[in-house]
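Section 5.1 Outputs to date
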Amino acid sequence: MKLFYALLIFLLNISQYQFQSLPCRTNCSDDQCWREALTYRSSELVEQLFSFGSLTIHVDTFLREHPDELNDTMKFLDEPLQNYLVNESKDSHLPVDLFSATKQRLINACRNLTLTAIKDISELPSLACSTRTCAGDILNYTVLFIVATTLATLILIICVVQLVKTRRQSSSLVTVQRPGPLLNHLSTTHDTSLNSQRTCNTKYGTMKCWQSTIDGFAYGLSTTMVDYCQVTLLLSQTKDEKQKLSWYNTSRDILIEQINGYNLDKRDRQLSKHDVEQIATTLLNKCFNSPLTISSPQPACPSCSKDEKRSIKQWNLISLISFTISLFLILAIIVMYIFQTKSTHRSYQSIG
């Protein structure tokens, strides 16, 4: 029953876990909205920078496995990123020079990651597309569904164990049953490497597949850098110097907070938090201290397509059903526990 109480406490406190992604705010007119916009854009930027570092290790490992394809990992990554930065900055009416220093710092830091080959597969960081989009809400419901399913499965196992123990105790009070090994065999496996599930992995992938993957990550990083720059540029245009300094410090603090809060596996070869802080701060300084004046509104938030909205509704329904089943199973195990307690008490009374 201790495991049951632990699960029950976890279920009651599950609301404390932040499954919802950070709110994306635009067209801000008050300080709180601007802080939320900064937090969202900073989180996006930090995630994209770390993801680009992970991509570098995967691409470098692939090219070491296929030396006949290409010998320059950073050139393979640098050119698409530069092209997307040029295009995205042009679309946003911003000079690409704003991003040159930041991009070069990033490339230099990533180049240091590729000086030597990884010695073990555990050094290979996980690589997944960004979830900080409209589809991130789908992920929230997916996580909720997994948690609910796990709880329901464990509770069902507890119910079965308690039922077996109750029947054995009712049939023979002399026999003392030791805790069954069932719960001891429960284990959760986690594969930190996505190579076995990715179409283009480090061993059997193709240049075409990796080029497409790089294009996706480069586009995501370039748009994130431009969006972050637009927000900080708008904040820097205040004429009050004290307020301007205050917003700079706020922007820097939020950025560092997001970096420090990012979860890194110590076994992975990855950009350090210090590296990312230096890269992101370079972008902040370039954009915030730029004499450029822009009249464009804040960058728009990701919008949901019809298919995404349909998927969100489906996952929402599945999650609610899963939690309902979990609650029913909790009620079932409570009833079974009460029944077992009363049955044992009556059995001892009959013996006495």
